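_Full entry_
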Amino acid sequence: MIEALKAATSTIPIVMAPAGDALGSGLVTTLARPGGNVTGLSLALVEMAGKTMEMLQTVVPQTRRLGCLVHEKDPLHLPFLSEAETAAARLGLPIRPAIIRAAAEVEAAFGAMVSQGVGAVLIQPILVVDPNDRSRLIALALRHRLPTASGLGSFAEAGGLLTYASEFKDTWRRAAVYVDKLLKGARAADLPVERPTTFTLIINLKTARALGLTIQSSVLARADRLIQ
């Protein structure tokens, strides 16, 4: 959506609230000085892939092989996968990527990961933005008894095992500040793009029980929210 707006105008200010990766997707020249008519907030979805993968392994320490589901049509899918692979290497675990090109391929992707011995799956956030896609993925994960994690809070709330992400409500509040500054005469090109500095760990205990998982008390103590 933001890319389409930017393509439509180079003069009307556009406030991202937020973008997945403003710099990596070319929406801005630099975070400090965007340089065009786009500013606002950018999530750290690519950078957080590795941390989310590590959180998933902490919650499911018995897993011996990790999976990563990404969407080829997203230009950030390769950087996201690279971060996940780096994290898996740090953990000393093999990773099995599953790259889909359409939502219809999700079921086959899960089947392939299961056949490859994957014990837990990191899902690229773009795949769980749409509520219908999110519900389908969560249902498939439960059917295959695969613990899953993603970088949107709504994922764990809807039944995914865990989310490690920034809170969207804080992002929307900050976006209003940008709008106010622009209406008072500031230039989008001069307003630095902000990225989140705090992240929330959400664990869905109902899903954990459905998967037959017992999560260590030390891990539960680290969670910001537990969904019963």
Summary: Residues 48-165+200-227 form a domain with the Rossmann fold fold (CATH 3.40.50.2300). The chain has two domains: 2-44+166-190, 48-165+200-227. Residues 129 and 208 are 22 Å apart (CA to CA).
